[in-house]
Amino acid sequence: MSTETSKITLGDENFELPILVGTEGERAIDISKFRGSTGYITLDDGYANTGATLSGITYIDGEKGVLRYRGYSIEEIAERCDYTETAYLLIYGELPSGDELEEFRRNIRMHSLLHEGMKTIFAGFPPDAHPMAILSSVVGALAIYCPDALEPSNPQHMELAIYRMLAKMPTIAAFSYKQSIGQPFIYPRNDLNYCQNFLRMMFGVPSEEYVADPDFVDALNLLLILHADHGQNCSTSTVRMVGSSTVNLYSSVSAGICALWGALHGGANEACINMLEEIHAAGGRLGKYIDRAKDPNDDYRLMGFGHRVYKNYDPRAKIIKEICHRLMKKHGMENSIFELAQELEEVALSDSYFIERKLYPNVDFYSGIIYSLMGIPKQMFTVLFALGRLPGWIAHWREMHLAPGGMKIHRPRQLYTGSAQRKFVPLIKR
Ligand code: SDX
Question: Is the CB of 251 under 6 A from ligand 1?
Answer without folding.
Answer: no
